[in-house]
Amino acid sequence: MRLKTISVVLTAVLLATGCQRGSDAKAEAPHGYVEGAEETAEQQSRLVLADAGTGAVQILDLITEKVSPAGKVGNVRELATDGRFAFLGSDTGAHVVDSGAWMVDHGDHVHYYRAKIRTAGDIQGKRPRHIHSDPAITAVSFQDGSVRVYDRTKLEAGAVDEGRSLGSGTQPVPVIPYQEHLLVPGTGSRQDVVEVRDRHGAVKASLEQTCPQVRGEAVTRRGVVFGCSDGALLVTAKDGKFTGEKIPYGGPVADRDRPTDFRHRVGSTTLTAKAGSNAVWVLDVTKRSWKRVQTGPVIAVNTAGEGAPLLALTANGVLKGYDVATGKQTAATKPLSGPGRKVGPQAVIEVDTSRAYVNDSAARKVYEIDYNDDLRLARTFPLDFAPSLMVETGR
């Protein structure tokens, strides 16, 4: 299964120690110092890969090209990340792996880190459906509607705490840590209301703008986006006050054509999602606008953001590029797996600032694409296992 049942907040994953301490402490440790980690000058991108058939978990370092084993998870069904940790979901919970690569974004500067790959522990529950993190906590929504919040600093130390219950609803909803609060949609007396709660779960406010039938969510630099039956709801905060702004579709949209799984590059404010069986949605959060691009049937979509092409992958392994403004196709690869072969139903497109990555479980390969050079195939990584599931960390 692709990342449409476990959604993760892709934000800065650690508050650098040196940036939080007073002048006396700074004399003891360099700015940005993190114990047990090496600070680097460039992004440390790694791909966490899981074989749904065998449960094998491997991590591909995109700088050294080394593949490292990271354990085994029985009946793994989903894979998600918060930029550092990988959450491998099954019917009994989520196995947490520290990928050893992450980024800390302080707005005016960025820190990149690398450390040893290790297991952080296991989150117990009836199939995690949504997982979101901020520097302090990780919120997990389970299939039975229950929600638990975990101490993220414990994960950084290599352990999973017991968690704290936020109660239970009738269905799993994405609970998002944001601006030292929790955004909780669809669990109050009105199912179309988004509540603002404190870290202990107490309701502090309810947004005036509603969001009926929440499906899909994302965190951007402009705020948190929830997909609603009548468009999108953008939630922002200023001076402790939370507000919601609706971004309507601009016309009627059938239920089957609604976006359910937003994909985007970390730091970007352009979101993508499949629009039914023959098109793709592009949501420009900055411009507050939707665009529907007629792509034909695709199994995965993504984009690096403003000025970059919309990327769409077909079942037979053809990656296509589209100009978002015109909706016209601008480039296409040959079938990545070769003629007559499919890449696998759980293939995804991971995008960073210069490259895109596609996992091909059928051919046991991962492809690196230069999307700024007519979708040129830059590197191919042959593997000795089927990379059914994939996420990128270090961002």
Automatic annotation (TrEMBL):
<dbReference type="InterPro" id="IPR011047">
    <property type="entry name" value="Quinoprotein_ADH-like_sf"/>
</dbReference>
<protein>
    <recommendedName>
        <fullName>ABC transporter</fullName>
    </recommendedName>
</protein>
